[in-house]
Amino acid sequence: MLIVQDPLFKKHRTPDGHPERPARAGALDAVLEDAARRSGAALERARAASDEELQRVHAQAYVERIKRFCAEGGGALDADTHAVAESFEVARHAAGAAIQLVEYLLEGRGRAGFAAVRPPGHHAGPDYPMGFCLFNNVAVAAAHACAKSPAARVLIVDWDAHHGNGTQDIFYERAEVFFLSMHQFPFWPGTGAASETGRGAGRGTTLNVPLPAGTPRERIRAAFREALDRVAEVFEPTLVLVSAGFDMHRLDPLGGQTLEAEDFGGMTRELWERFVLKGAAGMASCLEGATTWRV
Ligand SMILES: [Zn+2]
Q: What pLDDT was estimated at residue 115?
C-alpha cells in the first residue's frame, strides 16, 4: 500500500474559522505515519502535476487563471473558495499525489493507496473553482489512467456528503469513467439528483444516490451496496478511485448524516471485494471534505 502525505499541503491557507484548514493535514500526520509503520505501507511525498496533466480535465485558460491569481497573492475566488500565493503549487501537488497513486497501481507495485491531500478537488469543474476546490484531484488521476491506457475503465466512487458536481461535469459525456456519487440531498451544491445519469457516450455511466439528511446508517450502507450492484451490471472497472470525504460521519458539523468511522472501513471493504478481487488493478482514495470537529 502507498500513502502520499506532504507537509506542503499545510501551505494552502484559508481565512480564520474556515472549515477546510491546514490543521486538517496536521491532524493526519501522526495517524498516517503510525498506520504506515504498522501496515508496512510505503510513505511518499507528493509530486506536482504538470500543466499538461491538469489540462486533461481543466481548460488551459482556467489553469492559467489560477496560476496568475496565486502569483498575484491570491484572495477569494468565491465566498467559500480561497487561495494564497502558495496555493497553486500546493493544488498542483494535490493533483500530482492522486496521479502518483494511479501510477503505483498501474505499475503493479501494490493494490491500494491513500493520499491525504488538500485542497480537496471534487467540486472543481472543467473551468471553475468551487467549494474549497481548485483542481479536481480525482478527475486528474482518472484522466491520467485513461491517457496511459486506452483500455482503462475507471470507477470513481464519491461518498462525500456533498455531491461531486465537478467530477460529474468533467466526465458526464465520457463512457470510460463511471461516476458514482452518494451524498446528502437536497444539500449544497444542489446537483446530484437521481435523474442525472450522463449524456451522449456517457449516458448510464453517472449514478447519483441522493440521501435525505438524517438517513439511518443501515439505510446508507444498504443504498451503497445497491448502487454497487447497479454499477457492476454495466461497468467492469480496471481501477477504482474514491473521493473520500468523511463528512457523512455523524459528528461532522457540516453534514447531517449518521455514519460511524467503521462504516467507512466497511464501504472500503465492499468496494475492494466487489471490484478489486474481481479483476481491477487496485483501489486508491483521495481525501475530500472531512470532519473538522477536532481541529
Ligand atoms: Zn463535503
A: 97
Residue 293 reports pLDDT greater than 70: no
Render pLDDT for 218-259 as a digit per residue (tens, 0 to 9). 999 999 999 999 999 999 999 999 999 999 999 998 899 999
Cα-to-centroid distance, 17 and ligand 1 (Å): 16
What CATH number does the domain located at 2-287 have? Answer: 3.40.800.20
Q: What is the mean pLDDT of residues 210-220?
A: 98
Domain boundaries, the chain: 2-287
Q: Which residue has the cell 502535476?
A: 49
φ/ψ bin of 201: left (φ > 0), alpha (ψ from -120 to 50), beta (otherwise) = alpha
Ligand 1 center–CA 234 separation, angstroms: 27
Predicted confidence at residue 26, as pLDDT, reads 87
Q: Which residues are catalytic?
A: 123
Q: How long a stretch of residues is the chain?
A: 295
Q: How far is the CA of 191 from the centre of ligand 1 (A)?
A: 13
How much distance in Å is there from the Cα of 47 to the middle of ligand 1? 25
Ligand 1 is an ion; its neighbours by CB within 5 Å are: 160-162, 245, 247, 289
Rounded Cα–Cα distance for residues 24 and 20 (Å)? 7
The predicted-structure confidence for 112-146, as pLDDT tens digits, reads as follows: 999 999 999 999 999 999 999 999 999 999 999 99
* pTM > 0.85: yes
What residue ranges in the chain does DSSP mark as E strands? 2-4, 42-44, 74-76, 82-84, 112-115, 154-158, 177-184, 206-211, 239-244, 283-287
Order of strands across the sheet that contains 177-184: 42-44, 2-4, 112-115, 283-287, 239-244, 154-158, 177-184, 206-211
